[in-house]
Design goal:
binds magnesium ion, single chain, 33 strands, eight-stranded parallel β-barrel, eight-stranded mixed beta sheet, about 50% helix, binds adenosine-5'-diphosphate, about 900 residues, 38 helices, alpha/beta
Length: about 900
């Protein structure tokens, strides 16, 4: 094979511009510059953890010095079939010399040894990547000299045994069990419970035994060459990029496979150097409530992830203030520095080595919905961010979560009295959850998928449990604190969680939870209050949230209101809905469904009698007069509640048979009466009713005699409704309350339908106003809920002052799909199979239904530029659909009162994102 000869000149040039695979933590400027100032590219090159370390170093935060091998090196290694790219290792050694200078210690040096951690870190934080190895660079000789240097034999062998185990498990793939089992046996033999109680001799012995375990499991000695240790660790990080867990995660999270991971090699700082040292994790603000106060846990005389591992019960960070005020002071200072630098709440890892604080990691902290809102508002008030950003940082999902139901205090108090409170733990993720206990993740997932509300119950959770946690309504653990795995994941996904409920005995093997003599079996119901940490057996009743107490949300939404262009109305049928809608910030009623008023118990018989009477008959009039009284009061109540805001009232919409009793029921009853034969009058009545119901029966009631068709066929009914509206309006105006009714005609297809209804409405309205001497400013408009109406919107606009898109029906009629028949059956299957991108009854179908909406807006406004256009289907409260409504130039969206806050935020997002 011919060997390509590289001319000498070219070769030297190559070395000159030789690619940099390695950077020092203080070289952030160089990296950034070489990547054209793009921080995203810096993150891609150095990984999330690495770029964070570089950035913290730049911000003047104390970070132990170190170096990062780039993700490009990882990719080159993998592409090379497992060979370090040219020059990479030389660059590592060169950079390590610089790190040694900064640290004032030397790697592989007996006199003054430098130990390092080897940490992986891809662009996006992802489970499955190699775990960190701490204390790398130790061997028997170095350990002995460290004992002399530090005078702390206990510390040295604690560090050494950790290295042997971590290196063994992470780099060589040895299981943790043999190490843990041995450690437990030593503790048992010494009669101690926790690691801190073991002394220097113990750790020395343990280290020796760990090396024996290592040799047995790995088939070779634990390497005494620090450089060899380093090389193996770096390779292991590179390889972990293509490990199965990492690939699975990337597939699930849609992360590309060609990013690679960086390797961070960092000077060790020691939290296990006695009582003046420690380690911990903290949030710069409370991640559950958002309160501006350091929040987290720490352990004195501990290392690495001891805090999260639940080996000892950590101390809340507030304890640091007492224990070591100087360090706490440093911490407060650094927290504020970090927050100003990142302009966000941070989640940090730190270590205190003999009274000096070091930061080891920072990232934007995960938080609950409640915390997200408060932090956004307070950061804007502190002028760290502006109001637009504050509004954009809170997601509609946050608002939905915040307004979730809570447990009823009274029901809770009663349950306590009855001894149903079985334990209290850490209130790790707020919310009220009721469900059946499941003792493992797979079962939790299975039941969750079968639409069963589940509380996943575990001593603690691990990354492998996440699928079950996501399918659960609540999570309960007996170990771990507010920063444990369960707590962090639960907060991130808004699942209520109580953790560290120590009193509960969770026996996963036998699938029971015991406390005292009480036993909770798998499948039994539990109630978990993630806001207070309480755990109950059985179900506790839940109540709606109290919006008026959500002061931060109210403030945030008031800012959102200044950014949005869309109005936000509510669909409200009763005065109580209207009042709630206003409290939640609605600016009008976009849909008042009058038929709901007809369904009320005392009214239904009158409605039925009215339907059975002949159109235009005296009986019809008599029954309508009775209904008029009710309707008057309904409208009076709603108008009053809305106090001058527009109220859009839809005249009777559903097919009449909906008001009638069920035919089969009547038939059964008639048969019974015939059999008895003693109540002939009753029998006649029932038979007549049956007959009437038969007469009203339609093959396709949704496409039958309904909406304006009914209003036209039964003009007296329309007249009664209009009269009720105007009499109520005139009365209120006399009482000094302005009223703006907008009367809406439903299910229209042809402009003549609107025309004829308009004439009728205007006639009655004028009559009432003349009689009362009041002038009510009102509008008449139509719903657009049939494709034809949308297409001839210009003609519709001639008789309509407003349009309201009834997108539930418009979606049904555009698709030709009956929602009630489809959702439970093929529609969701369609979505799951990817046939449809989403359920069009949930998220507005922009391509089809949305096209009709845009067309109708355009054609309608051509004829009537001031035409008011809104949406009153359920899509009016759905964030994606709201963004569409904004773009389509609608004037307002109208949704259920509970969704008004979400809609206000979503409308602001739509405006701010443009
Ligand atoms: P993870 O991505 O799992 O959080 P990390 O690399 O952040 O892994 O490290 C695991 C633990 O070791 C953390 O508690 C971290 O703070 C600690 N740690 C990492 N590097 C050092 C170091 N150089 N000195 C002291 N502790 C360290
Ligand atoms: Mg970890
Ligand atoms: Mg970390």
């Amino acid at each position: 094979m011919a060997v390509a000869v590289v001319p000498p000149k070219k070769r030297s040039q190559q070395t000159l511009v030789s690619k940099r695979w390695v950077f020092l933590f203080d070289e952030v400027e160089q990296v950034e510059e070489s990547l054209g100032g793009s921080w995203d590219k810096v993150r891609a090159l150095l990984g999330g953890k690495g770029s964070g370390l570089f950035d913290m170093t730049r911000a003047g935060v104390p970070v132990p010095p170190g170096l990062t091998i780039t993700t490009e090196a990882c990719n080159a290694y993998l592409a090379n079939g497992g060979k370090f790219p040219e020059n990479m290792w030389d660059q590592v050694l060169e950079a390590l010399k610089e790190v040694e200078k900064k640290a004032g210690k030397k790697f592989n040096d007996v006199e003054n040894p430098l130990l390092v951690s080897v940490r992986s870190g891809a662009k996006f934080s992802m489970p499955g990547m190699m775990d960190t190895v701490l204390n790398l660079g130790m061997n028997d000789t170095i350990a002995e000299s460290m004992v002399k240097l530090t005078g702390d034999e206990r510390f040295v062998y604690d560090a050494y045994r950790r290295l042997v185990q971590m290196f063994g498990s992470v780099v060589m793939g040895i299981a943790d069990e043999p190490f843990e089992e041995y450690l437990t046996s030593v503790k048992r033999a010494r009669g101690v419970k926790s690691d801190v109680e073991l002394n220097a001799d113990d750790w020395k012995e343990i280290t020796a035994e760990f090396k024996i375990i290592y040799r047995a499991e790995a088939g070779e000695e634990f390497s005494q060459d620090p450089y060899h240790q380093l090389e193996l660790a770096v390779e292991a990080v590179f390889k972990s990029w293509n490990g199965k867990r990492a690939i699975d995660y990337r597939n699930a999270a849609n992360i590309p496979h060609d990013l690679g991971t960086a390797v961070n090699i960092q000077t060790m700082v020691f939290g296990n150097m006695g009582e003046g040292s420690g380690t911990g994790v903290a949030f710069t603000r409370n991640p559950a409530t958002g309160e501006k106060k350091l929040f987290g846990d720490f352990l004195m005389n501990a290392q690495g992830e001891d805090v999260v591992a639940g080996i000892r019960t950590p101390v809340p960070i507030a304890g640091l203030e007492k224990e070591n005020p100087a360090v706490y002071e440093q911490f407060v200072d650094i927290a504020s520095k970090l927050e100003h630098h990142y302009r966000n709440m941070q989640d940090v890892e730190f270590t205190i080595e003999r009274g000096k604080l070091w930061m080891l990691q920072t990232r934007d902290g995960k938080r609950t919905a409640r915390a997200a809102v408060r932090i956004a508002v307070e950061m804007a008030q502190e002028e760290v961010i502006n109001r637009e950003e504050a509004v954009l940082r809170v997601t509609p999902q946050n608002v939905i979560q915040l307004l979730h139901p809570q447990f009823d205090d009274l029901a809770k108090a009663a349950a306590k009295k009855n001894g149903r409170l079985i334990g209290t733990g850490v209130n790790a993720s707020p919310g009220a959850a009721v469900g059946v206990a499941a003792f493992d993740a797979d079962l939790a997932e299975k039941w969750g998928k079968a639409k069963r509300a589940v509380i996943m119950v575990r001593p603690e959770t691990k990354p492998d449990d996440v699928h079950g946690m996501l399918a659960s309504s609540g999570i309960l653990t007996s170990h771990g604190g507010a920063t444990s795995h369960a707590a962090v994941v639960a907060r991130q996904f808004g699942v209520p969680c109580v953790c560290g409920a120590e009193a509960l005995n969770i026996d996963v093997r036998n699938r029971v939870l015991t406390v005292g003599d009480l036993t909770v079996r798998e499948g039994d119901t539990l109630s978990v209050d993630g806001s207070t940490g309480e755990v109950f057996v059985g179900e506790i009743e839940r109540i709606e949230p109290n919006f008026s107490k959500e002061t931060y949300l109210i403030k945030l939404l008031s800012w959102a209101d200044t950014f949005r262009r869309l109005g936000v109305y509510a669909n409200a049928d009763y005065p109580v809905d209207a009042r709630r809608a206003r409290e939640y910030g609605a600016e009008g009623v976009g849909l008042c469904r009058t038929e709901h008023m007809f369904f009320q118990e005392e009214r239904l018989p009158i409605v039925q009698a009215m339907i059975l009477s002949e159109a235009g008959s005296e009986e019809e009039t008599r029954n309508l007069e009775k209904l008029l009284v009710f309707q008057h009061d309904d409208f009076y109540g709603i108008f009053k509640a809305m106090d001058g805001q527009p109220v859009i009232i839809r005249l009777l919409d559903p097919p009449l048979h909906e008001f009638m009793p069920d035919h089969e029921q009547l038939a059964l009853r008639a048969a019974g009466l015939r059999l008895m034969g003693d109540r002939p009058n009753e029998l006649t009545r029932v038979e007549e009713l049956m007959h009437a119901v038969e007469g009203l029966k339609e093959f396709n009631p949704m496409l039958g005699l309904r909406g304006c068709r009914l209003g036209i066929e039964r003009p007296a009914l329309t007249a009664m409704q209009v009269r009720a509206i105007f009499e109520a309006a005139c009365q209120l105006q006399k009482e000094g309350i302005q009223v703006h009714p907008e009367i809406m005609v439903a299910v229209t297809n042809h402009e003549n339908e609107v025309k004829i209804m308009r004439e009728l409405i205007e006639k009655v309205a004028t009559e009432v106003m003349t009689r009362t001497g009041e002038t009510v400013v009102y509008k008449i408009g139509t719903m657009i809920e049939l494709p034809r109406a949308a297409i001839i919107a210009d003609k519709m606009a001639e008789y309509s002052e407003f349009f309201s898109f009834g997108t539930n029906d418009l979606t049904q009629t555009t698709y030709g799909i009956s929602r009630d028949d489809a959702e439970g059956k093929f529609l969701l299957d369609y979505v799951e199979r990817g046939l449809l991108p989403s359920n069009p009854f949930q998220i507005l179908d922009e391509e089809g239904v949305g096209y009709l909406i845009k067309l109708a807006v355009e054609r309608g406004r051509k004829v009537r530029p001031e035409l008011e256009v809104g949406i009153c289907g359920e899509h009016g409260g759905e964030p994606n659909s709201i963004a569409f409504c904004h773009r389509a130039g609608l004037n307002y969206v109208s949704c259920s009162p509970f969704r008004v806050p979400v809609a206000r935020l979503a409308a602001a997002h739509a405006a701010l994102k443009g």
